[in-house]
Each structure stands twice: as structure tokens, then as C-alpha cells.
Amino acid sequence: MSVVWIIRDAKPGHFSQCEGLSNALLELVPELKVETLDRLPAAQLLKILLTRNVPPEMASLRHRGAPDLLIAAGHATHFTLLVLGWVLGAKTLLLMKPSLPCQLFDLCLIPAHDQPAEADNIICTQGALNPMRPGLKKSGQGVILIGGPSKHHRWDEHSLMQQLGKIIQATDVHWTLTTSRRTPESTQNRLGALNTVEFIPFESTAPGWVAEQLASAEYVWVTEDSVSMIYEALTAGCAVGILNVPRAAAGKPNRLVRGLNTLVEQGQVSVYSNTDDLSLPRPAEVFNEAQRCAQMIIDRGWL
What we know:
By secondary structure, this protein is α/β, with parallel strands linked by helices. The chain contains ten helices and twelve strands. The protein has two domains: 3-126 and 291-299, 3-Layer(aba) Sandwich (Rossmann fold); 141-271, 3-Layer(aba) Sandwich (Rossmann fold), CATH 3.40.50. β1 (3-8), α1 (12-28) and β2 form a beta-alpha-beta unit. α1 (12-28) crosses α10 and α2 (42-51) packs parallel to α4 (78-88).
């Protein structure tokens, strides 16, 4: 039986990426065993290097099945991944562009917007992986996901409300609208005043609520700043539209914008325009980067 260990840090988004890949691997290898452990502090890693012995709690985990593959995401996991890979003789897989040389890892899955080099141990992905899966789609159901100002985007509440007004008026869809931690209070108040959508503010949603909505929705509109939500909606099999949000810097697009531009060029998503046709076409092809990467890992004979 093959075994995978996921090394996690304190950021849920990083674990979500690892979970997306491990779930896809489980679909291909149902007997696969997946374990999760926290990254180790520097002092403990040094002790492991000097003694070549893992701590007792990890030894018991190893006794139940030595890992064939270690998976991690986040800069804080780099050294734990490398040390355990060396001591346990397991393959090391990192879900990001590392802050250390890529050659140190057996495989790096790096988003195309990070412009990775070409190498045998690098797989280029469209966006970060996620655990989303399509569900049974409900006819005429749609979701609108509103973000807020960010490092790369400013905010134009008036323009956003104009876009939403036209979409709601021009489409025969039952829209469920939700916000995020970054949504300004004034925007949330105006969204709550819309009487033609089902408004559920972020603070009223339970964990996993957005994933459930995306799984069953046919159509999704997402503000451009919410990049991870755009990729999750695509993975959920939705027809996806991007609501325009002002960018913080004019001129050369940042790495996240470059990734979105690629999706537009490929016909995977639509961008709001001030036209009469605001229908959202389905993506040109199935979008499931976790599944594609999982198959490439299996093809390498690692599991």
C-alpha cells in the first residue's frame, strides 16, 4: 500500500492545495493512505539531521506505513519537507515556487503566473490546486462572490454596483451573493439592500458553505481580486465571469493578473463588458489541475 504524508503550516490555503492533490491521488489510487503532520521547528529538524532518527510520535506514524511521497506548500514547510525526505527516503513534492533552489525537491508544482523555468522536476499549473469537485448542478442557479481591496487591487463600489445591477437585470438566474473578510462595510450595506438576490454575508456562512454553493451552481461571477475563488469555481465546473475591479498598478500586469489573462485567452472565463449579452458560456474544456497533476505523478511510478 502506498503512503503519502502531507506537511502543513498554519495557513489553511496551503493545506487546501495539498488536500486538492491528495484527493485527486486517492481517486486514482483508492488504497492510498494519506497522513497529515505539522511542520517541525528548526531545533527538532537539526536533531533529526544529527541523529537520523525521527521523534517518537513520527516513528509510530512511520511504523504504520513509511511514506512514499511527502507533499507540502508554504515557505515554512521547506526544511521539514527536505529533512524528512532525506531521512525517510521519500519523494518530496512542493506545491509552489520555492524560496530554495527547485533542484533540491523531487517535484515542484508551480503556477504559470510565477513563470517557472522548464525542468524535469517542474510541472506548470494554471493557478493553485484546490479540492473542489463538481456536484449535481441545479438549473438556473448562480453565485456571486464579492471580495474587496487587496495588495493588487483597489476598489470602486459604484462601478461594482453598476455591473451587478445589469447582470441581475439581464439574466434569468437565481443569484446567491456573498462577501468576504475584505469587503468594505459600505459595500456590504449596499449589497444587503439588493432585493433581487439572496444575500448571505460572509460572517453568516459556515465552513465549506462556498464550496457547496459552487458545486451545485451553473453560473458564477467573481470580483477580479478573488483569484483563488475564480480557480475554485472553474474546478467546480461552473461557467465563470469576472467582475471588473481597479488594479493597484497600471501598466505591466502582476503575476496573478497574467494568470487571469491566460484563462480569458483560452476561453475558460468571461470578463464583464457593458453589452447586452451577459450570459456565461461553459468553459471550453474540463478544468481540473489537481487531477491532471495527480495523473502525472502516477505516471512517474511514485505510488
